[in-house]
Amino acid sequence: MVIRMKKSYVDTKAEFRRLKTILPSIRRKDNVSKLDIILEAIKYIDDLQDQLMDRLSERRHVVSLLSLGAEVRMEENGDGVNSRGCSSSEDEEEEVEDLPNSL
């Protein structure tokens, strides 16, 4: 029983050291508490998530601009059909139908 607990403690300590090496803000600091390691890990995960959301948002923006450009080119060519395969008049009718009933 004592040997198992000691091994578990050693494993936990090793995992905290490993986590500390991953975190840029405390990687080179000495004597960092376990609580500080956990708090920095939470901050780091939040930062990574924010960066990911920013990248996804930028990609969506680029895709919308590209599809808007395609629609504009189609209208300039006189196709009268947008990127969804609807004529411009059908598209306008869809937009009116999508309005909330409270208006």
UniProtKB/TrEMBL annotation:
<protein>
    <submittedName>
        <fullName>(salmon louse) hypothetical protein</fullName>
    </submittedName>
</protein>
<dbReference type="GO" id="GO:0046983">
    <property type="term" value="F:protein dimerization activity"/>
</dbReference>
<feature type="region of interest" description="Disordered">
    <location>
        <begin position="76"/>
        <end position="103"/>
    </location>
</feature>
<dbReference type="InterPro" id="IPR036638">
    <property type="entry name" value="HLH_DNA-bd_sf"/>
</dbReference>
<dbReference type="Pfam" id="PF00010">
    <property type="entry name" value="HLH"/>
</dbReference>
<feature type="compositionally biased region" description="Acidic residues">
    <location>
        <begin position="89"/>
        <end position="103"/>
    </location>
</feature>
<feature type="domain" description="BHLH">
    <location>
        <begin position="15"/>
        <end position="49"/>
    </location>
</feature>
<dbReference type="InterPro" id="IPR011598">
    <property type="entry name" value="bHLH_dom"/>
</dbReference>
